[in-house]
Amino acid sequence: MAEQVISPDLKFVEDVIASGGGDLKKCYQCATCTVVCNVTPDNKPFPRKEMIYAQWGIKDKLISNPDIWLCHQCSDCTAYCPRGAKPGEVLGAVRKLAIQHYSPTPLSKMVGDPKYLLILFAIPVLLFLSYIVPKGYLDFSAIPRGEDGGIVYSKFMPVFPQIDVTFGAAAFFAVVCFVLGIKRYWTDMNKGVSAQGNIADSIKATISEILAHKRFEKCNVTKDRKTAHLLVFYAFIGLAITTTLAIVYLYGFHYESPYPLYDPLKLIGNISALALLYGITSVTGNRLKNAEKAGKGSYFDWLFITVIYAIVVTGILSELLRLANIALLAYPIYFAHLVFVFFLFAYAPFSKMAHMVYRATAIVFAKHTGRDK
Amino acid sequence: MAESNTVVIIGGGFSGLTAAVEAAEAEKDVIVIEKNPYLGGRVAQLNKYFWKLCPPTCGLEIQFKRIKNNAGVKIYTLAEVQDIKGEEGNFDVSVKVNPRYVNEKCVACDACAQACPSYRDNTFNFGMDKTKAAYLPFNQAFPMQYVIDRNSCAPNCKACADACKYNAIDLSMKPETINIKAGAVIMAMGWNPYDASKIDNLSFGKVQNVITNMMMERLSAPNGPTQGKIIRPSDGKEVKNIAFVQCAGSRDENHLPFCSYICCLASLKQAMYVREQYPDSKVRIFYIDLRTPGLYEHRFLKKAMDDPDITLTKGKVAGINEDPETKDVIVEVEDIFSGSKTKLKFDMVVLATGMEPATKTFQTIKNVSYTSDGFVDTGAKKGIYPVGTLKNPVDVVRSAQDATSAVIKGIQSLRRI
Predict the structure, then answer these.
(1) How many CB pairs under 8 A join A and B?
(2) Residues of chain A found within 8 Å of residue B251, distances taken between Cβ atoms
(3) CB spacing of A36 vs B318 below 8 angstroms
(4) Do A35 and B340 touch (CB under 8 A)?
(5) Scanning every residue of chain B, which has its alpha carbon at the shortest distance from the alpha carbon of A50?
(6) Residues 6+ apart with CB under 8 A from B117
(7) How far is B260 from chain A (nearest CA, A)?
(8) Which fold is adopted by the domain B195-353?
(9) Grouped pLDDT means (10 residues each) for chain B, 417 residues
């Protein structure tokens, strides 16, 4: 075998351990994990090789590797690991570090570290306060009402420019960060690997696989994750459609909210919200139920789940409180809803939300290079 | 001086026998409590010792002979200790002695077994064959006396008693509890093979041609279920393509968190059984690390490595299935050095299961504490001395050494008080 020089990145090892891979060093390379894994390719399977890369601090081999995203954290490996090294959790930590590595702003470190949580929340809170405080809206009775005397959120926080410009800018920022990150990731993945076939076919195959959530079906220990994740996934698509409709209503037809409950936009929005509530509750329930076998999850995971939970709960409550005309609760809850939505969108490229973009990219690449069939 | 000059030895395996002989030859009164109907324990079930590849019955016979010739040793078979009360120098040991239904007039003529109409699973051979309900545990059993397994008898049957010409069978025997005064107690209950069916991904009990290493010993032994012919359970086919799965339950915090020490050497030894019996055979051993500490042990490994038909592959087997047509065993493993995950077919697969200390069967004994792994905490109680595999996994040589040292401690207990 040819001689190889390894330059370990010890800081990276520490980061993996601090990010949820705390049992990394227990691994003794027996390869039980690769054998019980149902989603790994047979040639150079994961996660055993990732475990030794992570132990040795070979960062560049890990984060630029599509394998870390082909892993769906079924946690079969963690359940069967004879040493309790929790390969599933280690790969989760590596993915977090990969997201941080490829995101182009210092925000990435802040999202992954609890000590910056208050600052991250303070940004949207101050931003939205700056819209309403000058108008004296902290006194809820000063907020104008609708013609029938009901609560109208757009009179509290106008759609244009406050809402749309803020979220438009946040979304634009997120997209730019994603594009830059993915570009660097794609370049890194391409080093020394030759592509084959048509990239369009790989993209098509990836989309159909994601829409069907096929890979989740191969999990054993956490079988129940498929339904939960599928619900959350389609709920997000439903909510994206709702938002698009809202834009069309407002700017296309100058039709302003609130809309009646029988309106298609309301129907899609409300069904999606309930699906999201049920889905994210199942995600949480599954994680708690499987914690002994699959591991407890990291701060990075739970922050993401909590934010989604907060969005769906404050969203549903905002609607109910508006309909019930309870101003005292409705305005603060709606305010919180805006803060959480901002958190999810603006920080998406640095939070676990980024998994959808990086994982999809890695699957496309793996299919394109014949790594994944 | 202690009130009693007696050393009670719980367990009549190789450690217990060694302790008994050593203590008796130092003129102590020795009482051996054995739960099986025979002495010799796990060693009696082995085909050959590693690394010398000599038969263990030879060493066992020497111990049996030394015991037979020493009037100071009393043996209770089919007996289990219920409780130990008291202190160093003055223990009260209560023992439940189960009936053998056969007394010492037995000459092992086999007439009872021939007359017996009922069968039982042969536990000595791990259920791989059957014996009559009236049976001799194995052909070199000591004491050389038959046993009646009453749980397997037909109702009201006394065919064995009728067939016995020596009045050796008494079906009216009852269990009795005896109390023994002792100055010191040596615990030598040994170990049990880890229950392989608990390792669900290795399919023991689900795939017919998956056996354990202790079953392999019986399968290779001339006095075993196949008279030493290594054939597989499903169809009796000669096993010429065999795999050994190391660390089946050992070094695994879901099962036995410790290394069982003997399994690597045992698999190398069993590989040689197969290679010797079938010169055209192929053996493959899947391991995490091959652990053969010691000069002779290492030479033994080298010997296996020099055989081109023994392949050693780094990578733990973590999935086993059956080919439903041929009943061949399909093993799933990552070959770590080549970095590829493969499925391989074998005639038969041996799981190198580890040693579980036999502590579960005597939790009734108070005053003794146990480690989280189930071993006996040494030195927890003065006058009670655990030996050998009750303290950590060891081979036969080290068990015997440890038993000898425990006897010295026991004798000191008798003198101290």
Answers:
(1) 61
(2) 28, 30, 82
(3) yes
(4) no
(5) B339
(6) B154, B157, B159
(7) 14
(8) FAD/NAD(P)-binding domain (3.50.50)
(9) 85 96 95 97 97 92 92 95 90 96 97 97 97 96 96 95 97 97 95 97 98 98 97 97 98 96 97 98 98 96 98 98 98 97 98 92 72 82 91 95 95 86
CB–CB of B315 and A31 under 8 A? Answer: yes
Domains of chain A: 10-102 (1.10.1060.10), 107-223+298-368 (no CATH)
Distance from CA of B196 to the nearest CA of A (A): 15
> Residue B314 has what pLDDT?
98
- Which of B247, B289, B334 lies nearest to residue A34, judging by beta carbons? B334
Tell me which chain A residue has its CA closest to the CA of residue B256. Answer: A82
Q: Any idea which architecture B6-98+175-192+356-416 has in CATH?
A: 3-Layer(bba) Sandwich (3.50)
**A32 contacts B316? CB cut-off 8 A:** yes
Report the SS3 class of residue A45: coil
Q: Which 3-state string (H, E, C) describes A246-302? A: HHHHHHHHCCCCCCCCCCHHHHHHHHHHHHHHHHHHHHHHHHHHHHHHHCCCCHHHH
For chain B, the structural domain boundaries read 6-98+175-192+356-416, 111-163, 195-353
Task: Copy the structure tokens of residue A53.
Answer: 């890369």
Q: For A36, which residue in chain B has the nearest alpha carbon?
A: B318
pTM: 0.94
Task: Give the mean pLDDT of A56-79.
Answer: 95
Asked if B340's CB is within 8 angstroms of A80's CB, the reply is: no
